[in-house]
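Project standup — Tuesday

K.O.: blocked on the structure for the chain from last sprint. Re-posting the sequence here as requested.
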Amino acid sequence: MRSPPTKTPPFKVEQPLRLNIMADLNKRLSELTKDYGVPGAALAVWSGGTLSEAAAGVVNLNTGIAVTIDTLFQIGSITKLYVAAMCLQLVDEGKLSLDAPVRETLPDFKLADEDVAARLTLRHLLSHQSGIEGDYFKDAGRGEDRIAKFVGMLGAVTQVHPMGAMFSYCNTGFVIAGRMIEVAGGQGWDKAVRQRMAKPLGTPAFSTLPEQAMRYHTAIGHLGAPGKLAVTPIAYLAPSNAPAGSMQMACARDIVTFGRMLADGGVAPNGTRLLSEAHVKAMHTANVVCPEGLHIDEVGLAAFMWDWDGDGVMDTFGHDGSTIGQAAWLRYHSASGTVFALLTNGGNGKGMAQELMREVFAPADVAPKDTPEPQGEVDFDPAQYVGRYANVMETIEVSAEGDALVATIVPSPAAAVIAGTRRVALTPVSAELFVGVAPGYTEPATYHFLERDANGRAGILHSGVRAHKRVMS
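H.V.: unblocked you, prediction finished:
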């Protein structure tokens, strides 16, 4: 892993921009939903002191009801930025510490590895460095004690890598952080989100429960490849995983409002200060650097960070979200005052998001990086890569077909509703990094082969922002 840079980016608007694309935003969004097979989408962009909104497609292929700018979509793991912000509010209040053991707040906390359980900190959780199996999605019910019950079920959960060794995306860790918010703040999850975030931001439609969202116009997810989509049979992930992003719903405008608060040093558009500027900077300071070529450069406290202009300083921040048949993107670029939120309900939303971000951020002279491509022939020994790699969410079987590698991804039974088995041909970019495009999609995924043994065999396959341990040669 590379060492994190010591420089920190600006957090105040320097050169507000007004984007020309805004004049035709509805037309453009409508075109792209069709191009990428997305049933429905909502987009909000703040730039040059102006909010622009657009909506296209339908909330549900079965009903044909149109998406509007007020439609609520599931925001998935964008929720994790809210979790980090609430944790840091409690740090400001002296009720939590980033670097104290979790057990100071949750004395009965248990994991399969007692040493990890004893030393784990909130910083490990918020920066995805805990090493805990990250996609432990057991349903602990719907009551107000659901998050406490879930955390109480973690005693058998193992490590996918040693604590602090690398970045590996960890939903489980954010549910633990959510429980710490409940205990330290003296409020249940749903009330804490309303009192600490939704109300002071001025986003009353932001919902943590289906019964809240029912007051508004809502979208349902769709599963399957573009052109072969169907309404998902399951609307939400487990309620007990709410702090990881299983149930939250919002309109695109709400997410832009939250992004503007972070881009403006912790002050909401309505003038309410939610976070100290020091803690916003803490969210945007690297705790871990990602493998070279990953589509995320560095990770702060929940915040994903990118150097989009290539000057070595992280200038763009945000998070993605994915639930059952819905996906969402938040990006904010403080120097230009540009905030982008896209919400979708199926299809190739990632491809559409990448294209829209390039267009929206072009006037700021920043853009998402393309997935690395081979710069020449890469010499590699297939035997060092072939094998079975697994975590609790999926197994990836890497096999050799001639001189090429193929990854067969098989989801666990709990994850099968989200994605089926798929085969992906892998193209080498370097001896460590391969890329491949899943059937029906356009954006390549990365496959990093890490932790080589004495024979040069990879011990970790890092893909989908997650570590998978080698379990069979």
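K.O.: great, moving the ticket to review. The first helix runs from residue 25 to 35. The chain has eleven helices and 20 strands.
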